[in-house]
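Re: weekly structure request thread

Next one in the queue (255 aa):
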Amino acid sequence: MDTILSVRNIVKYYGSRGNVTKAVDNISFEVDCGEYIGIMGASGSGKTTLLNCISTIDTVTSGHIYIRDNDITELNGRSLSRFRREKLGFVFQDFNLLDTLTAFENIALALTVIQTPAKEIDRRVHSITQKLEISDVLDKYPYQMSGGQKQRVACARVIVTNPSLILADEPTGALDSKSSRMLLESLETLNRDLSATILMVTHDAFVASYCRRILFIKDGKIFNEITRANHTRKEFFNQIIEVVTLLGGDSNNVL
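Done, posted below.
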């Protein structure tokens, strides 16, 4: 398999003398092209710090993170900003669409930022919206769309730049149950139909059950790992709950 992400022995300390916390403790793992990975752990386990290091929001204390062949721990300044724009996609809890732009313009904006030629923008926007079945809303403004349509437009905006990796931190945290399910189904479509590689942090076992592989973090280390394989989502959900119990968490907090 083609490896997209390689995390090698990363360590992250916070604090100063006399009050130092090791948030990430020598974590290593790899993600292959087209995988849908979940990262779970209790509050304070280091899962969000890990994602922040991978997303270049934060820097590691030691170790290396490779996305494709780029060692992102060595990037800084403009090269880091450019890499973030061109190689990473971010899924937000809300749609983050601009109200004054049509669906087409919202999606095209992501390509305009990276200076994509106009003809290529038109081709790529129409291609991705056809795959996500939202071609009929391209001329509509966000207030004219349903929640599901807005969510798919937001996902189209993420995937249209062909990011190496899509990152999501508690993407359903601020959504109601209906909107959460729409978002999860959209992410599942991106992964299944468009081979998007997704890395998602969540504390919610139901959300995690949409993933294909789960890494469990405890005290800054990888505690366990499970894969969905041929199991149904309900069966995978039950597996997740079993590991959460081993972690010492309360399953009532992850349903």
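Residues 250-255 have pLDDT under 50 and may be disordered. Helices lie at 47-54, 77-87, 103-113, 118-131, 147-159, 177-194, 205-208, 233-247.
Next request, please.
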